[in-house]
């Protein structure tokens, strides 16, 4: 497994692989790897001849500078973890390497980027799209792997790839959860003694699923009222949003028919968490 | 020479060429081909094993719907012309083929896109960058050829390619001029009986060049005053802008040292024209 920091060195490695006709998988990460990332990586190594994992905490997708500063980083541990997987190349650039010459180009998916997460994190998805577009251009993967944990991100990246005709297949992998149901996230290290509170969002999602699948409730206002009630009965939690939306364009659903995405965000004193489930009614 | 309308068919052709290890050149055009385009095409065919010419009047780069509607189109004549060159593939998609599924993704170079041409044509460069990014993703060329006639466009595309790490070499080719000095442009068919007036901008550019290179004048306010005077003495011309700027970031230059770009736009009753020259003092 090679670890490179320079774009030009990635290009050299990729060129050799391309010439040999092998398929390339890319798993873009911000490091501090957990089981969720490992599941993406295992999917890539099982489907692609050559797997690239990028580790880059991308400043342009953080709307809050403090959040960027304190975002967990542990590159040494990440590299040790990746050595145990069949990863071929780790791309871990510096901020200066990724954003040289006063970068001023942005890739933006209008509409989808301004709602839900986008409403609470202005500019976030523009930062994500721009850096993912750059990574696609550097690594030129056949397939790229993203987690359903960040459902809106996955839907936006698929839209960007389709709109810009980017020659990559975007694969969504299921959310990996801890034993108690908490979605794996690098930010979970900040939960501390608020474990019970952190699980409130997942509890609300599961209750909504139960109401739809077992109790046959189809009216989203009823479902959301119950779900929100579960979260707000905990002390010290801010419920930022809880919505039931269409899988394609993320517009709110009134009456449930077919597949829907239920997603939300909560803020504990020490960390902001997101989660979602897909329900096929 | 193959002519294809579908993105998937371009991908199939390109895949074969890529696998054979041959280099691909792309000349993006809006059709109604003239000597300027032919010079780009000849450069590509001399430098690349496989040359793709795209013909697409891109609606998203027209700020004025009327300008889009009346933009000259003559695809049959274009194809006849291209058959005489060593062009391998012509990509002539419909608007529906290029912008399906309610496209909402935009690529934008901030700053550079809002000045000079961008000030008079809001959204123009965002449309250009987005469609060029799409063409790069579809054709995956090793080199792409653009004319210096559209100097700001060329500088913006180079910035986009650098910022987004797009694996393509952007080549700028010199402006091709008619015998009287008028820069070749598809829009020249609209000049009609205003030939003398249409040449005013070129005359101003040449006079500024003479003042810099022969008379040693370095103060741009003096140069621009003289240049603007040449244009405004004609009846029925609107001078939209005439500027002397830095080649890298298009910022105004006060005192000339080294290379500068002198560029302007004029509006005749029937057509808007742009032109520029590079002067190395």
What does this structure look like?
2 copies of one chain form a homodimer. The first copy, chain A, contains 11 helices and 10 strands. Chain A starts with a strand and ends with a strand. Chain A has 2 domains: 2-173, Rossmann fold, CATH 3.40.50; 186-276, Pantoate--beta-alanine Ligase, Chain: A,domain 2 (2-Layer Sandwich), CATH 3.30.1300. Chain A is globular and about 55 Å long. Chain A has 281 residues and is α/β, with parallel strands linked by helices. Chain A has helices spanning 7-19, 35-47, 65-70, 75-83, 95-98, 117-120, 124-139, 151-163, 195-198, 200-213, 220-232; strands at residues 2-4, 24-29, 50-55, 89-91, 105-109, 143-147, 169-173, 238-246, 259-267, 272-280. In chain A, helix 10 runs antiparallel to helix 11. Strand 5 (105-109) of chain A pairs antiparallel with strand 5 (105-109) of chain B, so a sheet runs across the interface.
């Amino acid at each position: 497994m090679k670890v490179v920091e320079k774009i030009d060195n990635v290009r050299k490695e990729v060129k050799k692989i391309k010439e040999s006709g092998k398929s390339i998988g890319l798993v873009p990460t911000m490091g501090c790897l957990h089981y969720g990332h490992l599941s993406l990586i295992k999917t890539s190594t099982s489907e692609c001849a050559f797997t690239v994992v990028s580790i880059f905490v991308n400043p342009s997708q953080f709307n809050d500078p403090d959040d960027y500063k304190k975002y967990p980083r542990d590159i040494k541990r990440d590299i040790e973890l990746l050595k145990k997987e069949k990863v071929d190349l780790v791309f871990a650039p510096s901020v200066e390497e990724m954003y040289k010459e006063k970068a001023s180009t942005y890739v933006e998916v209008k509409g989808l980027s301004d709602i839900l997460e986008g409403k609470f994190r202005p500019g976030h998805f523009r930062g994500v799209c721009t850096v993912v577009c750059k990574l696609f251009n550097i690594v030129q993967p056949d397939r790229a792997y993203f987690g359903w944990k960040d459902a809106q991100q996955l839907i936006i990246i698929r839209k960007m790839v389709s709109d810009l005709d980017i020659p990559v297949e975007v694969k969504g992998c299921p959310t990996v959860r801890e034993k108690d149901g908490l979605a794996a996230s690098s930010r979970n290290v900040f939960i501390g003694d608020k474990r019970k509170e952190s699980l409130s969002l997942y509890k609300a999602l599961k209750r909504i699923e139960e109401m739809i699948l077992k109790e046959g409730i189809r009216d989203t206002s009823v479902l959301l009222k119950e779900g929100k009630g579960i979260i707000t009965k905990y002390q010290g939690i801010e419920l930022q949003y809880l919505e039931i939306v269409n899988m394609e364009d993320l517009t709110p659903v009134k009456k449930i028919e077919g597949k829907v995405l239920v997603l939300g965000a909560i803020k504990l004193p020490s960390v902001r968490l997101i989660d979602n489930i897909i329900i096929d009614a």
